[in-house]
Amino acid sequence: MATEEELFANIDALLEEEPQLPPPAERARLREAAGITQARLATALKSTVQTVKNYENGRSEPKPPRLEAYQRLLRGWAAKYPAPGTPAAAPAAPAVPQPEVPETFTGPAIPEPQTETAAPVQAPATPERPARPAARPAATSRRPAAKKAAAPATDPRFPHGPLAVLDGDGSAYGTDGIMLDCPATTVVELVEWTLRESGLGAPKLNRYGKDSDPLIVLTAAAAVKLGLPERLEGHEQRRSLRLPEDHPVVKQVAKAKWQLTQRGFGPWARIYRKAQGRDRQCVQLAILSWDALDERSWPGVAEMEPADIARVLGVYAQRVITPRGSTAVSGLELMTALRPPTKPERDEETGNWVSSYNPGSLGTEPMDPAPPEATPEHPVVVQSGWTGGFLNEEAYQWVRSVDLLSDEECLRPFAVGLDLNTAFLAAAARLVVGLSAPDHFHNVKFNPKIPGSWLVDLSGIELDPRLPSPFTPDGSRPTGPAWYQTHTVAYAQELGYDVHPIEAYLRRETGAYLDPWHDRLKNAYVDTLADLGVTKDLDDRAFLAAMEQHKQVDPALAAVLSAIKATVKGGVGKLRERPQGKHYKDGERWPALERPTWRPDIRAAVISKARVNMHRKLNNMAKMTGLYPLAVLSDCVVYPSPGASPLDFLPYAASGKPQPGGFRLGPTPGLAKLEGVQEMAWAVDLMEKGLNPARHIKGGDAVLDEGE
């Protein structure tokens, strides 16, 4: 039986936990119900109006001690102004413990993105469309329930979740073990059944956004049943393959007054009609046998049973977004879903609601980059005759010269690889980027707070040759003036060097555009790792043991984790998607340029910050331990080690805690995990051949693929 001291210790631990806040929409409702302006609240919290706005639109969260004060205020308002339909709470006796989150907060006006698996919802049984349990019910999470605010009820418009996997016998496998009967025998019938009867879809991720269109994934048998070829073959690249316009299914779609997007009927086909009022009419199809699920991003998923595929994609849809194409496409779509370009606003003259710019977003119109931020084939470069050079902000691909290896290093028996967890996602946190068009400046004073591109000479900076230069992707020393993103130049200042830009392209309007994108993907990554047994409370030894086994714990969730990582890299890479197709000519515009999210400057900012973060850790490791890396590839670094574990060389304090500043182990983005171990002689042999040991330890992992 527990002692009184143990019970009180448990209660004290609960009291010390960080207080939970209601959803952003509820915070705004409570303030408005109390008749308090944002300005007055900002004054009370000793903050700014913009900060209060950020609290109420979900862009940021308060930190202690402001967090506790804000929580106390919201609790008081919640008692006075309960949500509509919620009875006012009776005064509680002092001895009764308060719930972690008031019931008022469990029903937000606007559905918020969820990180916990919702309870299974059974399809309503009708004579026409009976619902029955799936043959293979979804596995339950192995992770203990997190202490979070209660999830709101399933959106009544989408009782069966965001997607379904259709098999050849008409069984549509949904999330949470649901299975529906789909009577469709043609693609047109499938689209109409999906919109009218399936109950599939997902609520918007932002109050100004749009609901996610339902996704139907077709097995090979289902594709053949609907009149589609089992395989889609052709001489084009896989990403360009599509049915010819004279194919019977394409004609069928057109005859029924449905439309296909410009990409046509390919592995990811979107079939739609123009919206009628506020109701969207659009269905996303994914054909498994046409390689819709890339093996690199979704390892093993295409070969799973339909119910298991539905589980994998359902978890991804719940934690990230309903897939809209490759993980790169989904990563880009997530940015827009969380930062919609427009919001409704009342016209003061007419009183009508009109669409207006949503502050903090990229807007609705594409924006040309500055010439040094563009690619050589871009019209801005070709038509202007630009010859002034380009940004070269790319991830590290560096190997130390064998001549710089010491005897002590060569005698160490192992080469150990450390891989930073989603390093580019960590770099996106609180990253200020430009929101407006670039302006050109000459002989401007450097300001580390202004995002942009700077022409500056960093060739005079002397750094230890045993470390890669932080200013170039290949780690070599700069040879003269070159274009750099703000973070790279700011790091030169941080190292103690004076910088004098010759020229710059800067943006006046700025914002942390990627913050909600970072937060959602970080939560998805950490929650999925936790489901696989890799939690934040593990010590370093237990963490390494859990990481060694996590892929075997649940292959389905391991595939979700892989897809989340690919979403990060692909989404960042797609910000600078290059032209595709052998018929392209330099100077022509290509389709990606018509997106507001074609922003090579934002991609450069993420990569620059990630590379600077990596060099800072390398530099700190050298100062704390005297260790220097053998090679660096993107987010993986290889060190010589006396043992086969990073515990043999990572810096720890006398207390046993990791030293701050260097590499640390853990599941959080930006922290490290063990990537691989090899004999030191193997690593030296690769270096002598001019090869990068990090590339071989990582197994050819793609680096910021620009996506499909």
Low-confidence stretches: 89-152
Number of strands: 21
Give the C-alpha Rg.
27 Å
* Beta-strand percent range: 5-15%
Q: How much helical structure, as a percent, in the residues?
A: 25-40%
Structural class: alpha+beta
Shape: globular
Mean pLDDT: 86
Q: Outline the biggest β-sheet.
A: 8 strands, mixed
Strand order across the biggest sheet? Answer: 1-4-3-2-5-8-7-6
Number of helices: 20
Distance separating the two termini: 60 Å
Characteristics:
708 residues; eight-stranded mixed β-sheet; five-stranded antiparallel β-sheet; alpha+beta
Question: Care to describe what's here?
Answer:
With 708 residues, the chain is α+β, with helices and mostly antiparallel strands. Helix content is 31%, strand content 14%. The protein has 20 helices and 21 strands. The strands form five sheets. It has an eight-stranded mixed sheet. Strands 11-19-20-12-21 form a five-stranded antiparallel sheet. The protein has a four-stranded antiparallel sheet with strand order 14-17-15-16. A hairpin with a 3-residue loop joins β3 (171-174) and β4. α14 packs parallel to α18.
